[in-house]
Amino acid sequence: MKWILIVVGVLAALAALIAIVGWSLPVKHVASRQRTFAASPDVMWRIITDVDAFPSWRSDVKRVEWVANAGPVTWVEHGSSGRITFSIDASDPPRRLVTRIADPSLPFGGNWTYDLAPSGGGTQLTITENGEIYNPVFRALARFVFGYEATMTAYLDALGRKVG
């Protein structure tokens, strides 16, 4: 019984420490990832804006559904991260796309800016995340365990497999 109490106490102390560290971190962060692809900016643009095709090349997206409303283009991705609603804030084909998480009930939010530039017959894609993590425990884990760039890196890896 004594060992169980010690283990529970250590786990509680660790959880408290993670929460305290999370509270000390800023809610907002900026992270960026860049990769060059052999495809042209026009081809890359078509791929990153073809929402219906996401489940065919992104393993984290099982299905998408469109949200009909009078506002910006909005869709819901269903997948490994649950149900996340996105919308397009800005679109300048084939140079720049800005999408944002459009669900204020999530413990995180923010936007991704996709900048596409011609590069040696291909395209240099830079994704910049202006993110917000509201839960202090998630904030600490994102900063010190997962990294702010993990989702962008996974996206770029999947895009690389799609482009070939």
Computed over alpha carbons, the radius of gyration is 19 Å
Briefly note the structural class of the backbone. alpha+beta
Number of helices: 5
Sketch the topology as an H/E string, one letter per element.
HEHHEEEEEEHH
Share of residues in strands: 35-45%
**What CATH architecture would you give?**
2-Layer Sandwich
The low-confidence runs, each spanning 5 or more residues with pLDDT under 50, are none
Q: What is the helix fraction of residues, given as a range?
A: 25-40%
Order of strands in the sheet with most strands: 1-7-6-5-4-3-2
CATH superfamily: START domain
Average pLDDT taken over every residue: 92
CATH class: Alpha Beta
Number of domains: 1
Total E-strand runs: 7
CATH-defined fold name: Alpha-D-Glucose-1,6-Bisphosphate, Chain A, domain 4
Write down the overall geometry.
elongated
How many strands, what sense, and barrel or not for the largest sheet?
7 strands, antiparallel
